[in-house]
């Protein structure tokens, strides 16, 4: 196997009766003029949208506490969505899901590199013509983007083809994407330019400000501006564009992020938060995670340094945001501009004994920041609703007044206070997140033990996060068919896998007032639907199981009359084989072909 390393309507108006032809023509002209003016006013009312997408930024490691300018301009002036999740905890699949509104199993971009992922896979899947900037241009927007778009978008393939949908672009390209002091950007149709010796986020900031100025030269059209700094991702130097997976140490070199010199002295005493699951005395999790050794004191000290470097690298992003808002205020644009701030996936450092990295289903990796400010968005609000990356494309299209695609796997996020309150009403919004991953996990820090290598290849799993009235669960099935369940109300740090034999004694006899096994059967059936869902089934999975519409959430599904359906009839989530990408034949039973639905209040066998 090879690893490619990249560190790419016209309106018809009737003639009025009783008027002369000339009068008709004058009236028609006046109506058409009025219609044109109305259309121009409508266009002017379309909001501008700025989307800031950092790389690997954490929520649970508290990085936002160290970005006071982001807090000042966005958090304090907008709404923080405290239950926001990515659906695949790695860069390229997550970004493709974000921009397409589809789960990774529906884009089939499931890795950062070919053959299962990266920019070439994005193009091969026909997605270069079917993602957000293309739809926004169709809605009348000018679109701009600078920074990292996708992995494997390189100095060699950036024009094969060019990324569609952008009026102006200046992309950060592999193999220099993660090299903080030797970045390579490619503007519009020009060849790539190297910025050796300059800090990549400072380069990006100037490009972002330039695109903002360019957008303002076309004030007859609203604009979308995407800004994607690489911070706080690890610094990665790539020595070749492709090679064998086993030779990864010869292909790339990982170090902590490199901050700008002006920030290198900051936070000298800060350490990774010492939560109960930081380098715990006992193993936790499942599969390869449970086999990890406790980290040495030297290892922990280095990881604290790694953490400080992430915080320092984020200071340039903080300054970028400050400069952006200075320009927006100076141009009187804030009253008609939405600003989104999020990241592609989260990050762990030391939790569950893990070395720096992502790609797991733990909260550190999938639970990420989302902050929005703009017209009608309540200031200083914290929203409890569950939101995901596949909800963002529909959200932005709704703001733009553009049609919402029927094949979206997510739904628009309400941004106003009233909209959020309505969504919090029982049954008004999904309470789940579909989490999925294929392939390997990578250690980005130092290698401290010979028996813990850079890559772990059996890291394929399907999982479910569900948060509702009185419950908060994470349930997963790995490709080796190991299972995990965490009750995050009782175990917020996910230290007790209630389905692992070593911890079975800690499993409660009842949850939510019913036997433990009943809850497991419902969660497994829900994941059974979600792991291969499409479109509205991803948003309303209970309706796929109960077409009568009498089950809207986990509480409803626990009714005893459904016991036989869930516990006996329904097939279970399982894998036939561990793969490095989405190979449906290896993913066990599928709901579309092997699942059952509960109809008319009768069991399936009674109904047929």
UniProtKB/TrEMBL annotation:
Protein name per Swiss-Prot or TrEMBL: Arylsulfatase
PTM comment text: The conversion to 3-oxoalanine (also known as C-formylglycine, FGly), of a serine or cysteine residue in prokaryotes and of a cysteine residue in eukaryotes, is critical for catalytic activity.
InterPro entries: Alkaline_phosphatase_core_sf, Arylsulfatase, Sulfatase_CS, Sulfatase_N
Organism: Immersiella caudata
EC number: 3.1.6.1
Residues modified as 3-oxoalanine (Cys): 91
Signal peptide region: 1-18
SUPFAM superfamilies membership: Alkaline phosphatase-like
Family listed: Belongs to the sulfatase family.
Superkingdom field: Eukaryota
UniProt-recorded Gene Ontology molecular function terms: arylsulfatase activity; glycosaminoglycan binding; N-acetylglucosamine-6-sulfatase activity
Taxonomic lineage: Eukaryota, Fungi, Dikarya, Ascomycota, Pezizomycotina
Keywords: Glycoprotein, Hydrolase, Signal
Annotated GO biological process: phenol-containing compound metabolic process
Keyword Hydrolase: yes
Catalysed conversion reaction: an aryl sulfate + H2O = a phenol + sulfate + H(+)
Enzyme class: hydrolase
Residue stretches making up the Sulfatase N-terminal domain: 47-402
């Amino acid at each position: 196997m090879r690893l490619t390393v990249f560190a790419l309507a016209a309106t018809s108006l009737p003639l009025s009766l009783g008027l002369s032809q000339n009068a008709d023509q004058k009236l028609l002209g006046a109506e058409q003029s009025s219609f044109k003016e109305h259309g121009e006013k409508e266009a002017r009312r379309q909001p501008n949208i700025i989307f800031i997408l950092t790389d690997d930024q954490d929520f649970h490691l508290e990085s936002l506490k160290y970005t006071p300018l982001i807090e000042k301009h966005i958090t304090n002036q907008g709404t923080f969505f405290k239950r926001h999740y990515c659906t695949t905890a790695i860069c390229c699949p997550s970004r493709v899901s974000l921009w397409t509104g589809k789960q990774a199993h529906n884009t089939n971009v499931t890795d950062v590199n070919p053959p299962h992922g990266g920019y070439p896979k994005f193009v091969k899947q026909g997605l270069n013509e079917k993602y957000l900037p293309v739809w926004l241009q169709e809605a009348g927007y000018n679109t701009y983007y600078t920074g990292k778009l996708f992995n494997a978008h390189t100095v060699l393939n950036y024009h094969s083809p060019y990324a569609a949908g952008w009026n102006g672009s200046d992309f950060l390209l592999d193999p220099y994407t993660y090299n903080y002091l030797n970045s390579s950007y490619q503007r519009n149709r020009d060849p790539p330019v190297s910025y050796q010796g300059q800090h990549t986020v400072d380069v990006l900031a100037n490009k972002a400000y330039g695109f903002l100025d360019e957008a303002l030269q076309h004030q007859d059209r609203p604009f979308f501006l995407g800004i994607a700094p690489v911070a706080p991702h690890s610094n990665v130097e790539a020595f070749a564009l492709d090679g064998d997976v086993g030779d990864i140490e010869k292909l790339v070199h990982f170090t902590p992020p490199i901050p700008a010199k002006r920030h290198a002295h900051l936070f000298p005493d800060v350490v990774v938060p010492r939560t109960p699951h930081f380098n715990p005395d006992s193993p936790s999790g499942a599969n390869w995670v449970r086999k990890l050794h406790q980290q040495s004191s030297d290892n922990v000290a280095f990881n604290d340094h790694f953490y400080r470097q992430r915080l320092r690298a984020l200071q340039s992003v903080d300054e970028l945001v400050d400069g952006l808002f200075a320009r927006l205020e100076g141009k009187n644009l804030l009253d008609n501009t939405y600003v989104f701030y999020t990241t592609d996936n989260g990050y762990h450092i030391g939790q569950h004994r893990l070395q720096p990295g992502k790609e797991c289903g733990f909260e550190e990796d999938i639970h990420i920041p989302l902050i929005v400010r703009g017209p009608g968005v309540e200031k200083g609000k914290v929203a409890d609703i569950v939101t995901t990356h596949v909800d963002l494309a529909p959200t932005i299209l709704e703001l733009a007044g553009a049609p919402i695609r029927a094949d979206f796997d997510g739904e628009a996020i309400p941004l106003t206070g009233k909209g959020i309150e309505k969504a919090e009403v029982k049954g008004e919004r999904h309470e789940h997140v579909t989490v999925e991953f294929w392939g390997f996990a990578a250690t980005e820090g130092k290698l401290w033990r010979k028996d813990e290598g850079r890559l772990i290849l059996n890291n394929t799993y399907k999982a479910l996060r569900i948060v509702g009235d009185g419950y908060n669960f994470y349930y997963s099935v790995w490709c080796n068919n190991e299972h995990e369940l965490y009750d995050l109300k009782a175990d917020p740090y996910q230290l007790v896998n209630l389905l692992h034999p070593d911890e079975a004694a800690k499993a409660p006899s009842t949850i939510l007032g019913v036997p433990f096994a009943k809850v497991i059967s419902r969660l497994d059936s829900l994941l059974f639907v979600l792991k291969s869902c499409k479109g509205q089934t991803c948003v309303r999975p209970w309706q796929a199981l109960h077409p009568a519409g009498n089950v809207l959430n986990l509480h409803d599904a626990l009714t005893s009359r459904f016991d036989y359906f869930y516990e006996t009839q329904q097939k279970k989530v399982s894998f036939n084989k561990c793969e490095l990408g989405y190979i449906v034949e290896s993913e066990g039973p599928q709901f579309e072909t092997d699942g059952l639905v509960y109809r008319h209040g009768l069991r399936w066998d009674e109904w047929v």
